[in-house]
Structure formats: structure tokens, C-alpha cells
Design brief:
Layout: H1 2-17, E1 23-26, E2 29-36, E3 51-53, E4 58-64, E5 73-83, E6 86-105, E7 108-117, H2 118-122, H3 138-149
Antiparallel strand pairs: 1-2, 2-6, 3-4, 4-5, 5-6, 6-7
Length: about 160
């Protein structure tokens, strides 16, 4: 019985600290990748107001926090590759924005907007992704938002 309890504690504590498998490191950059099994044309994603397309398959995620208080405002680049019946999304160059800080030095007052990359937040000196900190796992928090953002919605056309 004690072995089962010990195993369960070790198993669940390891899951809580591991990073999401869709986030990988390539050339010292953290990239989120996911393959969607969907034969719908990726051009359907162009109607998503949170995405700004530069070409038919590349663009930017507009500044957002996905209405999630746990996520700082972010922007990122994306690339979409498609094959028959599926498409792969890669998100990279993720930058987070910190609320403006007011600095008052006598007669002058300025506000600085701080930004940092996901790599600054998560890559350790040895080049691996840092484990979650105090139960907050950034990759697990971002993953469902990224999945939803690039899921092609089947719109029902209505005649109004």
C-alpha cells in the first residue's frame, strides 16, 4: 500500500512540473507546434480577428492575453504548413509585455513598457526548458489558448 501511495505522489508531482509537449526548443528558440487533422482550407483562419496574415501561411498573433488573467499580454509570429487532410502550425518569437511602470524623477515623469521573450522566461543555461515554478506552468497555460486560436471553426451560414 505504501508503494502505491509513494508511486502516486511521485507520478503526480512529476506531471505538475513537466512542460507541455507541444513546446520544443530549436536553435535556442522555443517553438509551439501542433498538427491539426482537418481538411478545411487554412484560408478559413484569415477570418480570425486575433490573427494578422502577412502571406497565405505566415503572420502574427495580435497583442492579446486571451482574456486569461494568468497570461501577460503577448504577441508572436506563426507559420502554417498544409498537406492533404491536415495542417501544422508553428508559433515562435513569443514576446510578453509587462504593464507600464511610471518613473518620476523630480520634474520628469516617464512610463516604460517592458517586454521579454518566452526564451528569457523558460530556457535554462543548459538549453532546456525550465520546469514550472510554484505550480505555475506557462506552457500548460498557453497550450489550450494556442490550440483554440488555430482551430478552424465550422461556421453555420444563416440567412438573416
Amino acid at each position: 500500500m505504501e508503494k502505491i501511495i509513494l508511486f502516486a505522489v511521485l507520478f503526480f508531482s512529476t506531471i505538475g512540473f513537466s512542460q507541455n509537449k507541444n513546446f520544443i526548443i530549436e536553435d535556442k528558440l522555443i517553438i509551439w507546434k501542433l498538427v491539426y487533422e482537418d481538411s478545411t482550407s487554412i484560408s478559413e483562419l484569415k477570418s480570425n480577428p486575433r490573427l494578422e496574415f502577412i502571406t497565405d501561411s505566415t503572420g502574427y498573433i495580435k497583442k492579446t492575453n486571451f482574456n486569461d488573467k494568468k497570461v501577460k499580454q503577448l504577441i508572436a509570429e506563426f507559420k502554417i504548413e498544409s498537406k492533404k487532410g491536415k495542417y501544422r502550425v508553428s508559433i515562435f518569437n513569443v514576446k510578453f509585455f509587462v504593464e507600464p511602470i511610471g518613473i518620476n524623477s523630480g520634474m520628469f515623469s516617464t512610463q516604460t513598457i517592458s517586454e521579454h521573450t518566452i526564451e528569457e522566461s523558460l530556457i535554462k543555461k543548459n538549453g532546456t526548458i525550465r520546469e514550472s515554478y510554484l505550480g505555475y506552468n506557462l506552457t500548460e497555460t498557453l497550450n489550450p489558448h494556442f490550440v483554440e486560436l488555430f482551430t478552424i471553426k465550422k461556421l453555420i451560414k444563416s440567412e438573416w
